[in-house]
Amino acid sequence: MQSWRRKALLLALSASWLLVLLGAFPLLRLAVPTRPRAGASQGWPRWLDAELLQSFSQPGELLEDAPELPQGPRGGSCDWGACFDASKCRGGGLKVFVYSAAGPVSETHRRILASIEGSRYHTSNAAEACLLLLPLTRDSSAGECSPVPPQWNGGRNHLVLSLHPAPCPRTFQLGQAIVAEASPTVDTFRHGFDVALPLLPEAHALRGGAPGQLRQHSPHPRVALLALAEERGGWHTAGTNFSACPWDGHCEQDHGPEQTHPGATLPNATFCLIPGHRPDASHFLQALQAGCIPVLLSPRWELPFSEVIDWTKAAIVTDKRLPLQVLAALQQMPLTRVLALRQQTQFLWDAYFSSVEKVIHTTLEIIQDRIFGASAHPSLLWNSPPGALLALSTFSTSPSDFPFYHVQQGSRPVGRFSALIWVGAPGKPPLKLIQAVAGSQHCAQILVLWSSEKPPPPRWPETAVPLTVSEGHRKVSDRFFPYNAISTDAILSLDAHSSLSTSEVDFAFVVWQSFPERMVGFLTWSHFWDEALGGWGYTAERANEFSMVLTSAAFYHRRLRAGGPGRSRSPQSATASIRWRQGSATCPWCPPASVWTQCSSRTRCPYYARSIAAWRSPRREQRRPQPYSRGRPICLGGAERGGSASSLRTGQSRRPVSQCGRSRLANHSPSAPRGRALAPPSGPAAGCSSPVRGARSAAVRCRR
Amino acid sequence: MCAAVKYSLRGPALIPRMKTRHRIYYVTLFSIVLLGLIATGVFQFWPHSIESSNDWSVEKRSIRDVPVVRLPADSPIPERGDLSCRMHTCFDVYRCGFNPKNKIKVYIYSLKKYVDDSGVPVSNTISREYNELLTAISDSDYYTDDINRACLFVPSIDVLNQNALRIKETAQALAQLSRWDRGTNHLLFNMLPGGPPDYNTALDVPRDRALLAGGGFSTWTYRQGYDVSIPVYSPLSAEVDLPERGPGPRQYFLLSSQTALHPEYREELDALQARHGPSVLVLEKCTNLSEGVPAVRKRCHRHQVFDYPQVLQEATFCMVLRGARLGQAVLSDVLRAGCVPVVIADSYILPFSEVLDWKRASVVVPEEKMSDVYSILQSIPQRQIEEMQRQKWGSVSNPLFLPLIPPQSQGFTAIVLTYDRVESLFRVITEVSKVPSLAKLLVVWNNQNKNPPEDSLWPKIRVPLKVVRTAENKLSNRFFPYDEIETEAVLAIDDDIIMLTSDELQFGYEVWREFPDRLVGYPGRLHLWDHEMNKWKYESEWTNEVSMVLTGAAFYHKYFNYLYTYKMPGDIKSWVDAHMNCEDIAMNFLVANVTGKAVIKVTPRKKFKCPECTAIDGLSLDQTHMVERSECINKFASVFGTMPLKVVEHRADPVLYKDDFPEKLKSFPNIGSL
């Protein structure tokens, strides 16, 4: 009985406790206000009489600005409108005159001169120049700098260029001259007027330049996260699990995988910490070249070409006062951002920094953009491949006119092409070819370029599309002249003796639309390193690889016609012999050829070298995994044979290598008959034949 | 300005409750100022993601009740603005470090009414615009009411219009703020700087190190990487509702609507009109308006009266000339009207120029070239004008945009997804191991109920073989970014794909190296629009086109594994796991969506042992399977909001494929078809 009562009591007690506990919390929550600081201000008040508030300006005030004359420059500072006389540049665009050195020509001076002389800006007449360039160089013989130049005029329209820091003391006031110097301090830099240059090492290549070190998009899993620039040069790499110890450049603790590479100049890490002092700016370029994302700790110097280059896409500028936050942020940075930053470093290096020539041309291009004003490069053209030096603003400033930006713009090249038929010596009108091309549903117009001795026939066949005949100057490169008559992006370049069917033309055009930045053609060549001659040779023989397509039957983008001097050379004609000298100073800029090599979309030439011996060797040998060697010896076959390898290495050290195309495109027609091989006039047929298209897919569909 | 800013917003809008257009304007303004500061560097790391703001019922008070503060005549005045200020010299980052979410916190001083010694107010207490601006900040996630946690301080002293200020006294009011400390981390907003006669281009109030978000900066006064240039707010265009105008030609080519212009400019404009006739319209202030018509809303040309700002919509280009001040409110009107601004104001720092590329939406002409402005504008191609009219700032970018060719020596990692078909799996492993470029083989063992075979039973191959056991039988496991993947190239292969030869796989890898941002695969598929059903349809029949490749055998970049696992939009991933199907379609969508490029199909069609291929064998058509796959396409297209897949009509074959050439000299002789 008692035990029963005790049990009941216990039960009742615990039940009531449970009730209290359950009930009390909501009650408690009700009793205590939800906001911890109930009495404190809760944001900006909602004023009861907010409707009565006056506007910050009276209605008329914004309009009735008292008319006032424009202000002139104040103090010693300059800006573009005030200190540069752009009226001199009308007409001819930017023409640059370079002062010659008074005494013996220094090496730097010679390099500056060499890179400008080959450019489209150069003029040897000071009177017609709109920009006068005064190189400040460290003269080995004389202690003092160049004297005040004759046309100085207070420095107006002068560009004072000092590639390397700390040249001799200046003997004159810079005044209104634009100063282009390496890593200028932010305090004296005049935005929009001066130009910030990178801090170049003395031995920087004049032309071509070493390619970037980035070989793959994502960082290798085993590579270090951080490298720290050291004062005495070189880099100090550290693993992923370290504290802020490398911050001040010295690290006493031992953290396992850390190591210092005094000899290695290029860092091998994902991020490169660069202190903000000015001398450390030289590390910046190394990081760029290595594809190591520069993390700048409160830089006191202006980033190179900051006027046009969006450095937030390639580098991280941060505060050295926040070591822990920076480290944490780097460790947690999303892969997407890391990928984008890494690629951008490489693109910028290759486009603007890898050679002295590029640095100087970029400087001039920036100044030209200021002169052009409205028709300058938009930021997109500066900051995405292939860069503003290759996407010429004289051609267009609209990204959709170029073949490179369709993905970013979400656009497609316009769905028509113009056929350009070049009639050479025999002078027979290519009637069959015209009919075949005119039959294509994508053809917009046909231009016949009559380059023969014979006069063109008076009558031409009736075609569905407009046909224009124009007489050329009997020069092979006529066909690449950017004719105004061409209205479409795509150009089908043809020789009179080519023979194509309408289906082949249609198919090739569809392929070109997928790869508008490449050349798409039928006949292929491959080039190889001819050891006997010590030069490049080409062959039309059938091989497993090819590097060029012949312009006797190929599609390419209109923009490739407008290539400026010193950049892309016009592709040679079918009959020209292409031969490049070993070690020639100029990288013979890639003929914008080749379907499957990555030619035209990059700034460097994808030379694929393969000796005939290698070509003849059994295929197992060919396919042995070869070390990737962009920027190292080209001649894979030759280099393997020892003897000449070293000389090749040195001679060709600037030549990027790429593999050749090994694939070709075919239609998806199920049981497509093999297409006819083209019958070129010379050499064996070696084409990608394009099969006759099958019937279009029967199902109705809407392509978006 | 709104029109332009609308597109430039990188983060989502700050406030869920948007009542008026003013409000949107200020919210945008403030977030862009913050973005500008972020762009300048110091805050690069702070995530600017927004959480839903707490819905606090804010105390309502009257402005007349604010406390009055008397400023003694001899109270301190801050130094003039320090022109050498940069983020790392004048800004105290330590204040911005210690809050749990690493977010910039902004504090607003409470409103006070300042009077001088004799009781005369220093300025109007607060203007409507500044009140709305502060409300926007307060409603945003950046706001804090704890002064000790704040990184930025916004005084409630209204300095938007310098004309309405008593400069010395305003400076004294600033200096006595509780955390002033030489203005460090204080942010001032100003739209009308300077005053007669010299019209300085920055606020004349001595402000020491305070950051200034100002309208009308010139290159002389703008502290690059420290100040932020903002547009001058125009109350007019916020009042008037303007309909959207699409791009295209308009009635006038060039229009000038400003009324107060320097006589020299007026002469130039008149000369322009005389030369080019009716395509140029130069408007002036109306002189003979009837009573009650607001003069600010009308413009006149000779005797013709136009509504302002509506008339701006009738022009392709609209002039924005400098007045006494560089920043002109007309810029906001012009942008809102969808007219392309022609800015003629030398040394003017355009609003938000650190984050916006003005070249894409405006034309900047030097003052000395004003007489040529017509021919300069005429030389702009129509297509570019339309792009400017659209004022598109944002763009999509391919994550693997650099055309890098990965080294061949690196090889690829093959990932075989398997459940329990051990015999077939071993055959696949043996076949794949013959491919020269194979670097590693990863078997994803998706069967939790059964252990993988013992080590000794696995085929002996020349590359490392690793078995990963999964926690759940999910299809997504095949696309997980395993740490074991050290190569960039990944070959996804099913455990029953035994018909691919070593040559075919090696060739596929070579093609992938050429196009590392694409999916390179063997069996191709197509999506079609079914007009009868009004939806997408999945097609596996013989077609002339492909838009997908099956991931039963496909090469791709390992980055897409990361994207698939962590960044797949919507509920696609869980849908795939729930339906145990369509993981390959999802991958095709994902890759096409981020790169904007089509897949690449390699080698001719082969007989594949995959469920839907049975149709080709003439056995039985698995109708339900096809319906399910079609449903997947429709589902994914709705989640992506678009159809990202691209159709192509070509495939890649080796150069000498089927050529009349000795087989033993071909690189890839063993490539067969059906």
Automatic annotation (TrEMBL), chain A:
Biased segments, Polar residues type: 644-656
MF-aspect GO terms: glucuronosyl-N-acetylglucosaminyl-proteoglycan 4-alpha-N-acetylglucosaminyltransferase activity
Membrane topology: Single-pass type II membrane protein
Low complexity bias locations: 669-691
UniProt-listed InterPro entries: Exostosin, Exostosin_GT47, GT64_dom, Nucleotide-diphossugar_trans
Alphabetical UniProt keywords: Disulfide bond, Endoplasmic reticulum, Glycoprotein, Glycosyltransferase, Membrane, Signal-anchor, Transferase, Transmembrane, Transmembrane helix
Protein name per Swiss-Prot or TrEMBL: Exostosin like glycosyltransferase 1
UniProtKB/TrEMBL annotation, chain B:
PANTHER family, per the entry: ACETYLGLUCOSAMINYLTRANSFERASE (PTHR48261), EXOSTOSIN GLYCOSYLTRANSFERASE 2 (PTHR48261:SF5)
Family of this protein: Belongs to the glycosyltransferase 47 family.
GO cellular component: endoplasmic reticulum membrane; Golgi apparatus
Lineage per the UniProt record: Eukaryota, Metazoa, Chordata, Craniata, Vertebrata
UniProt-listed Gene3D superfamilies: Spore Coat Polysaccharide Biosynthesis Protein SpsA, Chain A
Complex formation: Part of the heparan sulfate polymerase, a dimeric complex composed of EXT1 and EXT2. Could also form homooligomeric complexes. Interacts with NDST1. Interacts with GALNT5.
GO biological process: heparan sulfate proteoglycan biosynthetic process
Residues annotated as transmembrane: 24-46
EC number(s) from the headed UniProt entry: 2.4.1.224
Role noted for this protein: Glycosyltransferase forming with EXT1 the heterodimeric heparan sulfate polymerase which catalyzes the elongation of the heparan sulfate glycan backbone. Glycan backbone extension consists in the alternating transfer of (1->4)-beta-D-GlcA and (1->4)-alpha-D-GlcNAc residues from their respective UDP-sugar donors.
Pfam family, one: Glyco_transf_64
Record protein name field: Exostosin-2
Catalytic EC class: transferase
The protein's annotated pathway: Protein modification; protein glycosylation
Gene Ontology MF annotations: glucuronosyl-N-acetylglucosaminyl-proteoglycan 4-alpha-N-acetylglucosaminyltransferase activity; glucuronosyltransferase activity; metal ion binding
Domain Exostosin GT47 residue range list: 101-380
SUPFAM superfamilies, A to Z: Nucleotide-diphospho-sugar transferases
Entry keyword set: Disulfide bond, Endoplasmic reticulum, Glycoprotein, Glycosyltransferase, Golgi apparatus, Manganese, Membrane, Metal-binding, Signal-anchor, Transferase, Transmembrane, Transmembrane helix
Location(s) in or outside the cell: Endoplasmic reticulum membrane; Golgi apparatus, cis-Golgi network membrane
Record carries keyword Manganese: yes
This protein's encoding gene: EXT2
Cofactor: Mn(2+)
Topology class, membrane: Single-pass type II membrane protein
Domain Glycosyl transferase stretches: 412-657
Catalysed conversion reaction: 3-O-{[(1->4)-beta-D-GlcA-(1->4)-alpha-D-GlcNAc](n)-(1->4)-beta-D-GlcA-(1->3)-beta-D-Gal-(1->3)-beta-D-Gal-(1->4)-beta-D-Xyl}-L-seryl-[protein] + UDP-N-acetyl-alpha-D-glucosamine = 3-O-{alpha-D-GlcNAc-[(1->4)-beta-D-GlcA-(1->4)-alpha-D-GlcNAc](n)-(1->4)-beta-D-GlcA-(1->3)-beta-D-Gal-(1->3)-beta-D-Gal-(1->4)-beta-D-Xyl}-L-seryl-[protein] + UDP + H(+)
InterPro entries the UniProt entry points to: Exostosin (IPR004263), Exostosin_GT47 (IPR040911), GT64_dom (IPR015338), Nucleotide-diphossugar_trans (IPR029044)
Organism: Equus asinus (Donkey)
